[in-house]
Amino acid sequence: MHPFTLDRPRDLAAALALRAQAGRNDAPAEYIAGGTDMVQLLQEYVRQPERLVSLAGLLDNRIEIGPQGLRLGVAATMAEVAADPAVVEQFPLISEALLNSASPQVRNQATMGGNLLQRTRCPYFRDVGYAACNKRAPGSGCAAIGGENRWHAVLGTSDDCIATNPSDLAVALVALDAAVEIRGAGGSRSLPLVDFHRLPAATPHIETVLEPGEVIAAITVPASSAARRSHYLKVRDRASFEFAVVSAAVALEMDGARIRQARIALGGVGTKPWRVPRVEAALAGASLEPQSLRQAAALAAENAHGRGHNDFKIELMQRAIVRAVEIAGARA
Ligand SMILES: Cc1cc2nc3c(=O)[nH]c(=O)nc-3n(C[C@H](O)[C@H](O)[C@H](O)COP(=O)(O)OP(=O)(O)OC[C@H]3O[C@@H](n4cnc5c(N)ncnc54)[C@H](O)[C@@H]3O)c2cc1C
Ligand code: SF4
Predict the structure, then answer these.
(1) Full-model pTM
(2) What's the CA dihedral at 277, 283, 289, 293 to 10 degrees?
(3) Which residues in the chain are classed under CATH 3.30.43?
């Protein structure tokens, strides 16, 4: 394990100041929340900060539901949010995405904020034995392009990185038009979660729009009837305790037997949680008849680019969309 000093600031302002001094990504000082991802990366020498700034006790952990929608304090754990009765009833997509993530032990410890900021599961990123990884060592190349890339992205890739974003929660939240409240030494701001993660382009090591020192303080999800009629479909290599090969988060507003509005995001296929507006537009006014669902789902494959081992994901993600829409549509 890489050695580090643990700071436990008395308040958030002190934490923000400590972390801001250290600069941007993979800095000499980093935040730690539940530690379930950070500690793994320290153990493997993937991340080597000199100091860890603990967020324990500094951020809100309340789960609040009102007429405007849902507000999640980022210190709430995955287990707390997944089991919250109002979340289960009004935002089943969120609960399902969380319950399909990790293990009960991890969910008891891991926070909402840490979940959105967990690092990719690209095996080359997580094994320092591989020299070429632009995300871990900028400018070193990408071992996955031309290497084993079965788990990698087919959407939003660049010639510098094809790693997927691994968060199931983020996929569900993007489908539901969630926003993140960000707090830094200079104040607070809010932005749609869909704009929070960056495409890799030529700088895959810069993964989000967070400025140095900023934290995610809360997640907000607007109220909608679609959120109740929603489903998270996760396809993975084994039935539990596994990341998504492909996932589809679907929320539907129905008009009788027809879809009035669909909101769909994909996981396991994009370099960030991937919303599919063209598919959503094609589904507006459609019935749940398989042929029209398949036609709409095919639009998700526009601009998809496989690298060999992961070509199968292009077909699989279309099938996942069709199945998830069928399941959500059948919900009362
Ligand atoms: C065995 C295993 C299986 C897993 N399976 C899945 C899965 O199937 N699906 C899935 O989605 N996830 C899965 N995960 C990942 C898991 O969800 C994350 O490890 C967890 O959510 C991270 O939360 P944490 O609070 O422990 O974050 P930490 O490990 O403490 O931090 C993670 C990162 O977030 C930063 N950070 C934390 N909170 C904030 C904040 N509020 N503001 C700014 N930065 C912050 C930290 O600096 C760090 O970079 C798995 C993890 C393990 C260990
Ligand atoms: S896909 Fe991205 S994370 Fe994986 S080896 Fe290439 S640069 Fe590194």
Answers:
(1) 0.97
(2) -20
(3) 5-54
